[in-house]
Amino acid sequence: MLSGTGLSVIEATSFVSSKWVPQMADHTDVLRGIQRAPHVQYPVLTPNMQGFQDAVAAGATEVAVFGSASETFSKKNINCSIDESMLRFEDVINTAKEQQIPVRGYVSCALGCPHEGYIEPSKVAEVAKKLYEMGCYEISLGDTIGVGTPGSMFKMLQTVMKEVPADALAVHCHDTYGQALPNILTALQMGVCVVDSAVAGLGGCPYAPGSSGNVSTEDVLYMLHGMGIETGANLAKVIEAGDFICNALCRKTNSKVARARGRTL
Amino acid sequence: MGNVPTTVKHCLSYEQLIQDYPWLRRWLLEEKTITGHEYPKFVKVVEVGPRDGLQNEKEIVPTGVKIQLIDMLSGTGLSVIEATSFVSSKWVPQMADHTDVLRGIQRAPHVQYPVLTPNMQGFQDAVAAGATEVAVFGSASETFSKKNINCSIDESMLRFEDVINTAKERQIPVRGYVSCALGCPHEGYIEPSKVAEVAKKLYEMGCYEISLGDTIGVGTPGSMFKMLQTVMKEVPADALAVHCHDTYGQALPNILTALQKQYAEDPWPYTMGVCVVDSAVAGLGGCPYAPGSSGNVSTEDVLYMLHGMGIETGANLAKVIEAGDFICNALCRKTNSKVARARGRHCDVFP
After folding, report:
1. What total number of domains does chain A contain?
2. Could you read off the pLDDT of B224-267 as tens digits, one per residue?
3. Residue A229 belongs to a domain with what CATH number?
4. Which pTM was predicted?
5. Shortest alpha-carbon distance between residue B237 and chain A (Å)
6. Which of A140, A227, B22, B310 has the maximum number of C-beta atoms within 10 A of its C-beta?
7. Maximum alpha-carbon separation in chain B
């Protein structure tokens, strides 16, 4: 359904071990089962060479690697230090280059870590630069626990942009504290023009049970379109896709736009 | 005036400079945009939960609960708490206990407790109950005015003129509201010029501050910018406030836009940003035009953003969260504030 909305990138699945993330155990079936729309990319997460090889075997044409600006988060989340993870990713990125498969890099905890708290912008810049220099075409800076504000977003981006050009950056804001949209607005005003979001605001926050996680694609589109910014996406169709998945999961949408749509005007 | 050094501003006629070198203006504007927007150092947060928030609750809230909420808010550092509304109980039963509430609260020093007074009757009742600040509620939409307060915009202005004049004589400040500033549930799009016209009228009649309300929360940074740009030609920025509803999740980016110094092309230099924001503890108050949707933006979420930007408000976020917890327990419902919901989960690393 998302393939028919005009969105040009849809992160399809994750080739991570099913022992760690059982939800993504069907990664191969999903990637093989979808009907790929032309002009749409379907990146998949590949945390290591094994995952990369499985992804390619399943037909992946774009992959992503997931680093962290926080040592503690890196160790707890992927069981290794930041430097060790960079070595793993280097293998993936080099092999991907040979096969002409683009790689997207993520930096989590860019505005704060659930274990370490405040994260120095210079650390975010260091990790982002490493991933960029290794060959990632785009670095998505993630506010993993949604604690950022326009203040910390500005300072972080100012520092990162000294090492990575704005047109290679994306922001991945979580809405746990309701700050995602003002943070995105701040990033756009600084020249970033790629924004990650999730339909219906899918995904909570494992570090704040009961709280929201990803910002809703519908709410992001509503804001961007209201500002005259083109996205290529059709808001009504995204809302439909959101309705579908919420029905399937028997839960309410996290999108305020979806909730309000059709009630006013 | 931009990022021109003070010494330059003093020794040159800046406006003459801009006339002679028009490219200079654009250069300064662009540099300002790239290096970051300027924001006020202090933002006054006007707490409307006890009035605008509770007014939208279906169940009648006991007077004692209203008073306790206001008393708790009085201890948070917020400097303005809209206490109640002296409107006929026939129209708004929730506010029928207005006199008891206003008389029952313990007023903190340095805190204002404005009350809504839609007409002279309401004003007189408010003054009799001890009101020291009042508010009047106009609309930028004719249809909304007629459906909401049963008269045209012009007729409402006449009513308000009476209230404002009488208030002036008693040295009671009057705040003006303009609803439907970014859209109307009946008319749809509202011309910024109409908002400016109504805001100007209220300001010229004597309102010290005009709160521009996105009544159904449909605004975005795009429409907020255009509306404010137009209104600021008629009413100075330091007399404006924004009252954003979060029905479409746009309240915080809209507030952020309002706070940013507006770069008006004409006349130069740009005017300062808005520095007064209305919000409601726990995001009290739904949207009667979008059942099930949220209404007022949460004070907690606004404070979190402002404090995170280094903007002072005088308010203590933890105490506001406490007040929010109290009223949500009393109403047996969950908070609409994302900060309140998440708080305490990360507070060992993020105080």
Report:
1. 1
2. 999 999 999 999 999 999 999 999 999 999 999 999 986 555 55
3. 3.20.20.70
4. 0.91
5. 21
6. A140
7. 66
